[in-house]
Predict the structure.
Amino acid sequence: MSREDWQSYLPRIEQLARGLGLRFHPVEFEAVPDSLMMEIAVYGLPVRMPHWSFGVRYIYQLIQRHMGHSRLFEVVFPGNPGHAYLSAGNGLAENVLVTAHVLGHADFSRNNLLFQRCQTQVSERIVEHAAQHARQIQQAIETHGIERVEAVLDAALALEQHIDVDQPLRRARYPEYAEPPKALPDDAFRRRFAALEPSAAGAGAAPRARAPVPPHPERDLLWFVAQYAPEMDSWERDIFLAVREESFYFYPVFVTQIMNEGWASYWHARLLREADFIGQQAYVDAIKCHSDVVRPVAADEQVALSINPYHLGFALWEHIIAEQGLEAAFAIRAEDDDFAFVRNHLTRELAGELGLFRYRARDGKIRVLEQDIDALREAILAPKYNFGAPTVLVQHLHADGTLELAHDHVLDCRGLDLERSRKVLGYLQRVWRRGVRLATVGEDGMELELSAP
């Protein structure tokens, strides 16, 4: 592939995409070596805070690639401008397809309301923002030492999914005092008394009661630790808030993956069909690449036992556009996440055409369960609940600083990985510097408490 050949198609593909109704911020394209591509994909951003866990992920991805299970054609970061990194090993046809695919992503992230809300709060220039976080942490390492900084990152990254996107990113601390109960005046005397000047009305009033911490169960663990840890230094709090900020950026990517990848796949296929300026051989090669992207995970006569988001999303968008038209699809793209998308548009008939079913694997044997469409939808969506993490809430902060957490196993309908949970509590306790307790249930359904130290 020559860089010039690929780049020469870019303005014409962008013009075609805009002519078909796509609206997107400018995208900066860059071809990079495969090793850098994998590093960018593992870290989630081109430059990000250093931590050993990313090295573990890198090794896993390297093994997957060597086994032929995955190949990275591109990595996209939404924003204004967006950034797209393409593998330098791609051929001309692959990069033509990838360019069209990226423009589908860029349209989705600019127009989807969840993306808009999170990017407005974080930054539309997340690549530069994350690089600033990385420099901030490098300065902390030089000042405080790698061991202290790594201990803070261990805890913060272990909790990176535990945010509350229903709360604003720039969130104030809880009120210090509880609001006094307000009695409605119900007679002439009380109405006259309520109308007195505050100094007169408050004479002899009881002292204000301090509000409990938290005043309600709190699920934004990163925010709570940053705000209320008894002995954290300001640089430690800054690291927690930096991780939280980046999690706000990643949340819409996670919770719209089926929609987003399907939308980009639909548009790269459509743009290729309508791009009469692409040579015949390049078109044929690109369509072959498209078929590889949107097929079920398994090949040949094997049965896929996991969902390929490209395959499912592409099929759903094709069905929606064929049945309801492009304007309806644009509205769905703007308003939905994967929960609404799958529940509203994966029908029993379409699931049958795609060969989707629930199954149970036990003792090396696989058994197909009932093909109830509601159960199937929920099985597809289950890994997405609560950012893919168990629902753990701050219940109470005791006077001695002990932090009391509770796993909402009823809402989750699943248990905790107890070994992992003990490790996370250990990481958290090192920065909390007081006792930490977590109430959950064991495999037998009986109440169980984990603690650190």
Notes: The longest strand covers residues 27-32. Residues 234-255 form the longest helix (22 residues).
